[in-house]
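User: Working on a comparison across species. This one is Dihydroxy-acid dehydratase from Falsiroseomonas algicola. Can you predict its structure so I can line it up against the others?
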Amino acid sequence: MGTRKRPDELRSHRWYGVDDLRAFGHRSRMLQMGFSEADFRGKPVIGIINTWSELSPCHFHFRTRAEEVKRGVWQAGGFPVELPAHPVTEQYMKPTSMLYRNMLAMETEELARSQPCDGLVLLGGCDKTPPGLVMGALSMGLPFIFVPAGPMLRGNWRGKTLGSGSDVWKYNAELRAGNITEAQWKDMETGIARSFGTCMTAGTAATMMLACEAMGLTLPGASSIPAPDANHPRMATDSGRRIVDMVWEDLTPAAMLTQGSVDNAVAATMAFGGSTNAIIHIIAMARRAGLELDLERFDTISRRVPLIANLRPNAGEALMEDFFYAGGSRAFLKRLSPHLDLTAKTVSGGTMGEDIADAEVFDDDVIRPLNRPIQAEGGLAVVKGTLAPKGAVIKTSAADPKLLTHTGPAVVFDNYADLKKRLDDPDLDVTADSVLVLRSSGPQGGPGMPEWGMMPIPQKLLKQGVRDMVRLSDARMSGTSYGTCVLHVAPESHVGGPLALVRDGDLIRLDVPNRKLDLLVDEAEMERRRAAWTPPVRRYERGWTSMYLDQVTQADEGCDLRFLEAGAPTPEPDIY
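Assistant: Here's the predicted structure for Dihydroxy-acid dehydratase from Falsiroseomonas algicola:
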């Protein structure tokens, strides 16, 4: 390793190590809490950013994990301090947790800047917490390490293995079709989520934890350890030990991350058949690191990287617990290594190649060989055209292959309330060939781009045996979902994108092999519709949501806030 920092070069030295009035006050207040000066002076102060909450089932073990991180920090000669942060929880936050991802990013950055932190340990996992925490930590620029929450145990119901999210959508469709009873549906509640931890399907949480590891931000293998497994607390303690050395080594994001780090995250997401949400999040993370990433680069990587994780909701019956037993994230990345930058640095202090050198796959059906993939291309694709000039995304691995090339008439819903009101109307003019269109669901229209894009199939079609059809919106969808859902249409309808101008009966052509999405309406008619369109009335005049609406970028740009994404680095605070 290179030259290590001296104690007087620590950032926290400005708070604790000098001889002036302010440092006297800082030291005396640490003594007030029962610490001795030997506990903190001249040692790396490690901020543990904890997103634990009693309304965050994915993170319910983080009270304990924070203590296990502290154990590692103490062992390595550091001083741990726990800093609670906004628990951006997918299950309960309305209208959507995505509205608050950037709030967590801003809070993470400011917690670290305003406090005497030398390094950070980020505790997250549920969907928006990995990108939110990482975005803030990247902007702050201190050494940091991410501790993933880990997936929950497999679901179980009446002898069937259940996957969180995926089987909710599946069995709800069967309930609406009349194929299972209300009592059976109710009984399923007790078996679908059996432990703390994130969704155990290949959803957004699993995708983002893996993307963080592929980007080099976790210890090797950390992202796939099931939350209740004894390896998980050991990983937390190892992370606590490692961050102390990272501070002494001054292993900051700027010293570690490269374009190869970002491309590794994208390649892993594609080979995993990961969530469409990852496209928004990884773009935002890359831009915070000052690195290039756009929809075109995603699609270029997707075209060359095969899908090799045989997990729900993409294919097969395997879940994240099976993925872990098959060798986990290290084995997956080892198998993917021809498509990775193996020289990219990681928080281990080594390179990606060194981190995965001895990894093995133990189940070739769960983690497929490159010459026997689920599909030849990655699980996500980007489409563009007259309906999505700045792009839209689709999870091809979770779609009906027959629908990837499809032309059909639009059935338009102006917002989700309209969808909920009319979807199951027996008189709705809809067939299996129709294209369901939902608008007012993007970054501004939602607001926050809710997970409404996996629109339910109309009940009368379910009863006819239809289980998939083309659905299109400016919304997101849960990474646990499946179906031929075209998402993230940009520009969104709320700002006057072409989606705002679609009418019932308009023909829409989806051509995923050629990456096209077109509204088959002539330009003269579109101009008449544009002239008649009026912007929606603003619903939020104050608070966080108002600020969000003023600053949020579109989906193709990562949905970050402009004033957080750009500008010169924020200076260190004065201490007077």
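For your comparison, note: The first helix runs from residue 13 to 16.

User: Helpful, thanks.
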